[in-house]
Structure formats: structure tokens, C-alpha cells
Amino acid sequence: MHRIIAHLDMDAFFAAIEERDTPAVRGVPLVVGADPLGGKGRGVAFTSNYLARAYGIHSATPISTAWRLSEVARRAGKPPVTFVSVDMQKYARVSGEVMRIVRRFIPHVEQASIDEVYGDVSWTGSYEEAERVGRRLKAEIHSEERLTASIGIGPNKLIAKIASGWRKPDGLTVVREEEAEAFLAPLSIRVIPGIGPKTEGLLKAKSIKIVTDLRALTLHQLEALLGKRGVDLYEKVRARDDSPVEEYSELKSIGEQETFESDTLDSHMLLNQLDGLVRGVLDRLHREGFHSFRTVVLTVRFADFVTKSRAHTLAMATDESAILRREAMKLMLPFLDRRENPHRKLIRLLGLRVEKLSCEMTPGGLLDRLFT
Question: Which residues pair with 63 in a beta bridge?
Fold first, then answer.
């Protein structure tokens, strides 16, 4: 039996919850994110409803930019944007309810994020029956949670995910296996996972703009151009993806980040912020049930929004705060001098995350547990 995979993506999830719960913000452009502080705010928009997206405000838009776009709309006689703060506890609670509904309809699922989930619906036996299950699922979510979702159904996770974004909001798109290559052909190369802004720029410089253009390259040409990623893209642009729906997909990393009120290069202030990130990451590590990590990743965003990440993998797993602090500091110090920051640019954001997580207790952690 051929695989049939569904991908469900909640529509403007955070904003939709706020509209549902607060009648005053219904039917107006809405952004959930940092306080814009009259255009001087820091941080980003977490999400926006479709009215705000029409103004050019999307996820990860700097909140100061969102404010300016709102002001442009207001001066043109359009409704200004309403900004509301993030309530992650509420969104996580609603996400749990949605996922419980999904599991009533699809037994084998993989939650990909707070607002999206893959489901293996091969058991339905046909695309027609899979579509009926999808429609009933959408109706149940709307009935119980008063929220809309968009669903894509296809022969693999790649096609299902792209299809779920095809007719947003409240869409349902079915792409059969024999239709998959034609479905991808006219789309922008950006729809293919693994093609970000930098790779898109590289390819567009070679007049490669849509999937058909990329498909014209041979495997050898793609590998020469993009290395191992080129081999992966060769398969994806041909609608091939054999990645499984993993019911208990592991948390890949745990991280924290902080956007500063003022851009800075003050080493004392940055090291203090780094200490706070270390404490936050370790606290989350233990709350999530992990006992150790091996890889430390530091992210620095400069005042001009250029973002760089540097990582180091330890020889042995650990959960010691002193080791995490030491490794984080070693990664950060080059950003305070000419090694990583030759133009002495100010820093607006620090992020710290740990990867290669393990639930097994380290020897030091085990001793601590035995003697405390």
C-alpha cells in the first residue's frame, strides 16, 4: 500500500486564539508579539492575523517594523494594528486540546510544533477517504475549539506540508502521488525545505527561481553547488521524501534568547545576560526530563539584524552549569573583539541552546542524586 500522509497546520494560531477569546480584537489587524513601544520596541512579531499580513507583517517581523507598517496603513485611512502580548501558557494549553482531537481521528501522529502535526493516514486506503477524515477533523476542531486549521494530504511529509499552506486559511488540499511533481513544478524554490534566503539568493543569481528550474540541474551539478544538501534537494524537487511519521519524535534542542532594550557591546552586561541564559537553559533541560547535553550553540544578532551562530560539541555529556557557562563564554568572547566582530557592531540579541540531549544521568548527576 502506498503511503498517504496528512499535515495539519493551525491558521494564524496565536492570533486566532486571541481573537476567539477577546471580542474587542476580532476583525481588526492583529499582531501577537513584543510591545512596540510606539515604534521603539525590541523583539519580533510571533504571529499576525491575515488582516495584518496584508500590511506586510509576518512572523519574525521586527516589532518596530510592524509598528511602522501599521502607521503607514493608519495614515492611508486603514485600521491600525492592535498589538497584544504573548501568552505561551494559554497557547500551549489550547495546542494540547487540538492535539487530543487530532489523535481521536488519526492514531499515528508526529507533533512538529505547537501548531502543526503530521499524521499517517495510509490506513484509510485511498485519498478520497483520507480527505473525508481530514474534513471531519477540521470540523471537529472548529466545533470544539472555535479555531480553523488547514490540511494538506499527499504521498509524503514534504508534499503534505507544502499542500497545507496552499489554500490558507481553512483549506484542505489533496495532492496524489502521480500529481506531486506537477504540483511542485511552478512553485518558488523557497517552498522546498532547506532553501533559505542565502541559498535562494545563490540560486536566483543563476536564474533558478522555481522548482522546474532547479529540477533541470543534474545530481552532480547540485552536489557541486551545494554539497550534501544538493543531493537532498535533488530528491525533494522530484517530490521524493521517505522520512517517517515519528510518533515520539525527540526534542532536538533546548534554548533561551534575550533581546536587549538597547544595543550594546558592554562586556559586563553581556556576560550577565549570558549567565541568565545559562540558568534558563539548564532549568528547562531538567524540566523537560533530560539529564545532559553535548553541544552548546551561541547565537548573536547584531544591531543591523545580521545573525551568527557558533557551536562546540563536548567530548562527554554533562549538565554542569560551570561547564555550560565556560563553553558559552568561550563562544561569545570572539564577538567582543575583531575575531568575529571586526567592525565593532553593537549586539541586540543573545541566544543560547544545547543539543545532543540525553535522558541518561551523568556520573556526576547520579552521585548528586544519591547523596542529596
Answer: none
